[in-house]
Amino acid sequence: MALEIEHKFLVTSTIFRSLAEPVRYRQGYLSILKGKTIRVRIAGARGFITVKARVSNLIRKEFEYEIPLNDAEEMLSELCNGRIIEKLRYRVPYQGFYWEVDEFLGENAGLITAEIEVTSENQSFIKPEWVGVEVTNKTEYLNSSLSTNPFNGWNK
């Protein structure tokens, strides 16, 4: 069983842009149920399908498989519910971890989040100076939520 244990934070500056090259992501959801999603993603020139199920606040089961790029494109254009999420992802090394920084585009422009994947719920880590408040438990920041309730529509 594949487990994903991660923390999500808001980003407070754009310093990360000078620390890694971005990869363009496009993703959509074939299914969004409470605590469970089936996602289709194009990362650069590669396609993926991913099934996720929440186990606890920090832990999710995650099953991800590479699929042909043409299949991913067709699923995104014809089968996905909600809006397609578009973002630039930066994979930034810091203090022995990689931080995945997502700079959202389109209807979610202005939102920048950073995630760190750890090996246990109690594992400690040091946040970079450009990482701010933790939003791991705020469901509105889930990509699946952003596909149905984009950031630019929020009453801030």
Give the tags.
156 residues, mainly beta, Hypothetical Protein Pfu-838710-001, 9 strands
Structure, described:
The protein is mainly β. The chain has helices at residues 69-78, 143-148, and strands at residues 3-11, 23-33, 36-43, 46-54, 59-67, 81-94, 97-104, 112-118, 131-134. It has an 8-stranded antiparallel beta barrel. A hairpin with a 2-residue loop joins strand 2 and strand 3.
Any idea what the radius of gyration is?
15 Å
- Give the termini distance in whole angstroms: 39 Å
Q: Under CATH, the topology is which?
A: Hypothetical Protein Pfu-838710-001
Strand order of the largest sheet: 1-5-4-3-2-6-7-8
In terms of per-residue confidence, which ranges show pLDDT below 50 for 5 or more consecutive residues? Answer: none
Order of helices and strands: EEEEEHEEEEH
The residue-averaged pLDDT reads 96
CATH homologous superfamily title: Hypothetical Protein Pfu-838710-001
CATH class group: Mainly Beta
Structural class: mainly beta
The fraction of residues assigned to DSSP E strands is over 45%
The tally of beta strands, per DSSP, is 9
